[in-house]
């Protein structure tokens, strides 16, 4: 069967979660059962049609659902950006390694399409450009693989931006979360000495990821005071914050080297507070009360090159993407509520097909 023809198992319609109104997931999301299946890529199209296995949810999605208006003429707003699945059809212009039918892949939707246009991936089938799809071995767990692009690309950009290398000592705040758990492993692969921060209930998990020291933020509250006492005479090269704790940056001169930096990707304090803090932390001069340490925050769109690199690490057993929980497609709202607790240990994933 040609890769440019429709596989007979692809139905004309599918199930997809859509957001017809603003609000939290419980009131804003609806499961549509007659959503049109994307068209099959034909001829020299660079696109790939994927039967979605699992979708890895983002913490920021519910904030976007509460904030962004529905734009006219856009159509139903489908959330989420990253997935694992198998190839159903592909155009001849797609990369050769993702054209074979049945191949297991990880993929992502670009941010403008997912956020602005609402063309997310929380659906049973998606069609994406081949440059956003990467092959992965069939033996890799698909629930775990679905988190490679978001958590993996973000963690990778954090250590590259900071310049983490062998001999550095880094603090990872939120070491049990979806990004933090990957970040710990990538730092260790680079030869860094890692101190991981999480709640005491997650200590075994975080130590299992390879941290050299563990800090229970609940036991040592306030955390900055403890870090100053414990690490003031051996300050960190970098503080990698996956939570977005403003106090961690404000007090950082007590435990962060003068040439070091706080790299933050967390937004747990809310969008408005996070944006305000980012502006103040980045631009307020020290003579007006600014903190005399570098503060770095950036967007982290996935890339195919990162996906390919991370997939190889996973296949080789050098990296694992921890999964907190897996919910059936019908229970996606419960999955968002799990994320909202801020206690998830790794990725929260929705399984899109049964069996």
Automatic annotation (TrEMBL):
It comes from the Eukaryota. One of its GO terms (molecular function) is oxidoreductase activity. SUPFAM superfamilies: GroES-like (SSF50129), NAD(P)-binding Rossmann-fold domains (SSF51735). CDD domains: MDR1. Pfam families: ADH_zinc_N_2 (PF13602). SMART domains: PKS_ER (SM00829). Residues 25-350 form the Enoyl reductase (ER) domain. Coiled coil: none annotated. Signal peptide: none annotated. PANTHER family: PROTEIN AST1-RELATED. This is Enoyl reductase (ER) domain-containing protein.
